[in-house]
């Protein structure tokens, strides 16, 4: 019985920075009738952000729900990306073995759910399509054979582990001592690789909790040694520590799960109202288990969560005496693809003196946080709503890319998750 499934979910109505060469690709959904886009390791019960090994035997399961019982024709193709998420100059014959397109033929209609939906899924790599080189990739899913009628993008990485990576995270940073930030010191050891120009041929990418808005791309190495790059005391590698994620459980339509104030059925929809959240910016740090923004789909007393879990409108409420006019507040986590769109931007309710948002989510357990994005900026902050503490337990992932002179794509030669 499949009980726990890693999920990223939410409809987006704005185009991602991924509409063509030179623009950035990110995991997102492009149609409002498509929900619960997921990418996970096949045949596993653990929520984890997956990375494939080149030539390995791992497979990804990519799946999503279309909100009807109508059969639709979906096709996917594979794109090779650079370290920065833009499309590389490699031709498909250089990075892909097999067919360039595949139809999605595995689908099942929902059973005994109030919200009718059809669950689509496929495995990658498969016997008809395999990546030939390492690097970043995007699966482009489209409808009715029309490549411009895009349903979703799914981004992931394939690594050829040729280098070793050491990471140290500390609260005593170059800008403060045991305060609101965390700093990373990183060593990249080349081993037997002969890299002629390490400073120019190697690109480092560092992500915190799967977020892309605050990722650090290509920081300058502090020391260039024989067969090693060292990133020590680099201010570029100072991250806002944030706080532990909040969470809620909507596995049941009838009993209130964790952080759920009430559940009721109205006008053909289930509604789950969360308890009003508190602003944590002035609160002390409290150790609390979280999944660093990840989620699982799960419904009580069903045999198959993929097709028997239902959907609910989940209502968020964050009291605030007045709106923050200098920017916007977002509900963030894998449930919203760690993106900032109109769909996860909260609205201020002057009558109730609170920020509110409603998301249509499949039953399960979810991590989330409130991020504030100032006007004109692309990187959000946890300070106003969540606070920030150096003790926070975050997930950091370091990617090492290799682009020697004359090459037309970035190879991913090492990944380390801390």
Describe the structure.
- The chain is an all-beta fold.
- The chain has 3 domains: 5-159, Single Sheet (S-adenosyl-L-methionine-dependent methyltransferases); 164-241 and 395-417, Immunoglobulin-like (Sandwich); 246-374, Immunoglobulin-like (Sandwich).
- The chain has helices at residues 92-95, 198-201, 305-308; strands at residues 5-6, 28-29, 34-41, 52-53, 60-66, 74-81, 96-98, 101-103, 106-109, 118-124, 129-131, 135-143, 150-159, 164-170, 181-189, 202-208, 216-217, 223-225, 228-231, 238-240, 246-249, 260-266, 269-274, 295-297, 311-319, 327-332, 347-349, 354-362, 364-374, 396-402, 411-417.
- The strands form 7 sheets. Strands 2, 4, 6, 8, 12 and 13 form a 6-stranded mixed β-sheet that branches. Strands 1, 21, 24, 26 and 29 form a 5-stranded antiparallel β-sheet that branches. Strands 14, 15, 18, 19 and 20 form a 5-stranded antiparallel β-sheet that branches.
- The protein is globular.
- It starts with a strand and ends with a strand.
- Residues 1-19 have low confidence and may be disordered.
